[in-house]
């Protein structure tokens, strides 16, 4: 191919894909096969296409008919679950350090009103939300933005 042919194929939908993106789509496809959403033959065919893909739009086509583009299946992998647990543990550690600092400041201030109540409530509410909702992990662990719905 010469430079003029390359220019004809360039554009936002013709970005080259990386090995990690191919592996991510392969993980989605394996999870879909495990859930029974794809037959073994269709899953193997899509896996072969994923590993042979050169451009990102070729990968996107492989997962568009799966619920949520396959992202929910990706979050059910053991790697994503352990990464989410690590994130919640890290968050909890920060919350407890801040809580003890606030309580120490309140004790040293000698204030009669328990003023750390509101910041403590907000800190623990954020921690509860992080631990409770899996969608927090969608953006942090293992979901490529190029595979998001509506993204070109």
Strand content: under 5%
- List the secondary-structure elements in sequence, H or E: HHHHHHHH
Structurally, how many domains make up the residues?
2
Question: Share of helix among residues?
Answer: 55-70%
Largest sheet: none
From the helix content, strand content and strand pairing, which structural class follows? mainly alpha
Low-confidence stretches: 1-8, 140-152
Number of strands: 0
Rg, Cα atoms, Å: 23 Å
Shape, per Cα inertia axes = elongated
Distance from N terminus to C terminus (CA atoms, Å) equals 25 Å
Q: Tell me the number of helical segments per DSSP (H or I, 4 or more residues long).
A: 8
Average pLDDT confidence is 80
Topology summary:
Blueprint (H helix, E strand, L loop, with lengths): L2 H7 L9 H17 L4 H13 L3 H8 L7 H5 L2 H32 L7 H16 L2 H6 L12
Helix pairs in contact: 2-3, 2-4, 6-7
Keywords: Membrane, Transmembrane, Transmembrane helix
Pfam family, one: DUF1707
Overview of the molecule:
The protein is mostly helical. Helix content is 68%, strand content 0%. Helix 2 packs antiparallel against helix 3, helix 2 runs parallel beside helix 4 and helix 6 runs antiparallel to helix 7. The longest helix has 32 residues. It is elongated and about 70 Å long.
């Amino acid at each position: 191919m010469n430079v003029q042919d390359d220019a004809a194929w360039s554009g936002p939908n013709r970005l080259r894909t990386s090995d990690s993106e191919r592996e991510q789509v392969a993980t989605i496809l394996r999870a879909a096969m495990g859930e029974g959403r794809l037959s073994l033959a269709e899953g193997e065919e899509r896996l072969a296409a994923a590993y042979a893909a050169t451009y990102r739009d070729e990968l996107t086509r492989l997962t568009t008919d799966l619920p949520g583009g396959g992202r929910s299946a990706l979050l059910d992998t053991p790697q994503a679950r352990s990464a989410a647990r690590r994130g919640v543990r890290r968050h909890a550690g920060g919350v407890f350090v801040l809580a003890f600092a606030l309580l120490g400041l309140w004790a040293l201030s000698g204030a009669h009103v328990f003023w750390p109540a509101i910041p403590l409530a907000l800190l623990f509410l954020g921690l509860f939300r992080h631990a409770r909702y899996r969608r927090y992990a969608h953006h942090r662990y293992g979901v490529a933005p190029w595979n998001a719905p509506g993204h070109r």
